Amino acid sequence: MEFRVLGPIDVREQGRDVTPSAPKQRQVLALLMAQANHRVSVPALLSEVWDGEPPRTATTALQTYIGAIRKALAAATGTSARDIAEHRLVTDGNGYVLRLADDEWDRPRFERLVLEARGLLERRETHSATEVLGRALAMWRGTPFCNVRHGSRLTTQARVLNEAHLAACEVRIDALLLCRRFQEAVGEAVALVGDHPYHENLHAQLMRALYASGRRAAALEVYQSLRRRMTDDLGIPPSPSTTTLHHVMLQDRPDQRYLAAVGAGALS
After folding, report:
1. Are 130 and 168 in contact (CB under 8 A)?
2. pLDDT at 257
3. What DSSP state is assigned to residue 254?
4. Bridge-partner residues for 91, per DSSP?
5. Which of 29, 58, 86, 163 has the most beta carbons within 10 angstroms of its beta carbon?
6. How far apart are CA 238 and CA 200, in angstroms?
7. What is the Cα–Cα distance from 244 to 8, expressed in whole angstroms?
8. What span, in angstroms and rounded, lies between the C-alpha atoms of 170 and 200?
9. In whole angstroms, what separates CA 235 from the centre of its chain?
C-alpha cells in the first residue's frame, strides 16, 4: 500500500484510491498517518475530531471509525480486519498506531532525499544536489491535509510539513545559484516570495538570482519592497545581512558580483 501526506491525504493499493470518503473516518486516518509509527492516544483523537468538546458517545463512535478504517484497508488488500488490527492499525494501550514501512509513505522518502541533497551540497556536488532536491519537491501534491477538516493537531502537523517543504525549497534555490542556473532560481524564488511576503531569506535569494541574471534594478526593487512592507506592517527594518546584500548590489563591484549572487554562507 501507499500512504501519502505531502498534499491531500491519499491511500492507494496498486494505484487504486482507497482513501475513506466519510469525513470523520478520513480525519482519524489523517492524524494516524501524520504520526505514523507513533501511538496516538484516544483523548487526542477525540479532541481532534470533535474540536476539544467530544460528546458522551464519542469514544464509541471513534471505535466505529477505527473498525471501518480497518475493514476498508482489509478489503483493499484482500486480508482480514483482524489481520489489519494485528499488523497495520493496532491498538496500543489507550490509543492506536498506524504501522507504516518507510517505503510505504511519502514523508520519510522526502526527508531522506532532502538529507541526501544536503550531504551532496556539503561535498560541493551542487548539480547532483539540485537534481535530488527536484525529485524531493516533485513529491508534493499540494497543501498537506487539505482534503480533511483540521483540528488543532492536524493544523500543527500541516504547519510542520509546510515548514519542511519551504526549507527544502530554500536549499534548492541555493543549489541553483551555486550551479549558476540563475533564471531557474528566479522563477522558483518569485513564486515563494509571493506566498511569504515577510520571509527575508527568500527575498535575499530572489535578489541574488535577479542580480546574477543581470537584472540589478529588479533586485534592488525587491529589497525596497521588502523594506517598505516590513517597516509599514511590522515596524522593523530588514536584518543587517539583507541590508548588507543590498549595499553590495548598490556598489556593483565586479569582485563582489558572484559572492552577492550565491551568498557568503553558501561558499563557506
Report:
1. no
2. 63
3. G
4. 96
5. 29
6. 7
7. 41
8. 11
9. 29
Q: Considering only the C-alpha atoms of the chain, give the largest distance between any 2 of them, rounded to a whole number of Å.
A: 72
pLDDT of 267 reads 41
At 264 the pLDDT is 47
Neighbouring C-alpha atoms within 13 Å toward the C-beta of 72: 18
Q: How far apart are CA 208 and CA 92, in angstroms?
A: 51
DSSP 8-state class, residue 256? G
pTM score of the predicted model? 0.90
Q: Which H helix or E strand runs over 4?
A: strand 2-4
Q: What is the DSSP string of 94-153?
A: SEEEE---GGGBHHHHHHHHHHHHHHHHHTT-HHHHHHHHHHHHTT--SSTTTTS---HH
> Distances from the Cα of 21 to the Cαs of 65, 123, 191, 193, in angstroms?
12, 46, 32, 35
Torsion sign over Cα 235, 240, 246, 247: positive
Q: Which residues of 230-263 are buried (b: 16+ CB within 10 A; e: fewer)?
A: beeeeeeebeeebeebbebbeeeeeeeeeebbbb
Phi-psi region of 87 (alpha: psi -120 to 50; beta: other; left: phi over 0): alpha
Q: How far apart are the C-alpha atoms of 98 and 88, rounded to whole Å?
A: 6
Output the pLDDT for position 106: 96
Residue 253's Cβ-side half-sphere holds a number of Cα atoms within 13 Å equal to: 9
174 three-class SS: helix
Nearest to 30 by CA among 53, 5, 52: 5
Intervals of the chain under pLDDT 50: 264-268
Burial of 51 by CB count in 10 Å (0-12 exposed, 13-18 middle, 19+ buried)? exposed
Q: Round to whole Å and give the CA distance between 163 and 141.
A: 15
